[in-house]
Design goal:
- The radius of gyration is 16 Å and the shape is globular.
- It has about 170 residues and is an alpha+beta fold.
- It is built from 4 helices and 7 strands, in the order E-H-H-E-E-E-H-E-H-E-E.
- The longest helix is centred in the first third of the chain and has 19 residues.
- About 30% of the residues lie in helices and about 30% in strands.
- It has one domain: 3-Layer(aba) Sandwich (Aminopeptidase), CATH 3.40.630.
- The chain starts with 9 loop residues before the first strand and ends in a 9-residue tail after the last strand.
- A 7-stranded mixed beta sheet has the order 1-2-3-4-5-7-6, with helices on both faces.
Length: about 170
């Protein structure tokens, strides 16, 4: 790195997934996950269909929240938490752009989602992950998400995990 070169900082922002920024990053999330599922580039039609089949409207307006990851001013990822019931949330739409992976942003994003969740009274976070998303599965395991009894019958729920969060303001070691 050039000594005077400014390194963009990583920041997070809670936003509406229906906003232009939210829809654009969710489109990238679906392009990535559909591409990986079929092991070929996703078509725009497939991405649009996936966004229609699995809308993100339930991760805002009291039903949860949606976070965008910024590297400087560039959006490089996202993640959301869906409120399931009192004290229980579900991680969803967790995504980091391929060119931004490998720098620990996934871990930072999940830590941010956990922190916001705890402040909002969520005590347990659960999630599902497909078997082809092995890196994500390993990341969740490293972050203390453990296998639980199945709670989803989705064909994409190969692994079902959960984690009890420390109370807000308490940092887990």
């Amino acid at each position: 790195m050039i000594p005077n070169e400014r390194t963009p900082s990583i920041t997070f922002g809670v936003t509406d997934p229906r906003s232009p920024i939210g829809r654009e990053v969710i489109r990238r999330f679906y392009f990535d996950t559909v591409t990986r599922y079929w092991d070929r580039p996703a078509t725009q039609r497939e991405v649009t269909q996936a966004m229609s089949d699995e809308p993100s409207d339930d991760i805002c307006d009291g039903g949860g929240f949606f976070v965008v990851v910024y590297d400087g001013t560039r959006v490089v990822g996202c993640g959301g938490v869906r409120a399931v019931e009192q004290g229980l949330g579900e991680l969803t739409r967790v995504f980091i752009d391929a060119e931004a992976r490998g720098a620990g942003l996934g871990r930072k994003l999940i830590t941010e989602l956990e922190s916001i969740s705890a402040r909002r009274g969520i005590r347990t976070l659960r999630l599902t992950v497909r078997k082809d998303l092995a890196e994500a599965h390993h990341l969740y395991q490293r972050l203390s998400y453990e296998p639980v009894e199945p709670f989803s019958n989705s064909p994409y729920a190969d692994h079902q995990l959960a984690k009890i969060l420390p109370p807000a303001g308490i940092v887990a070691e």
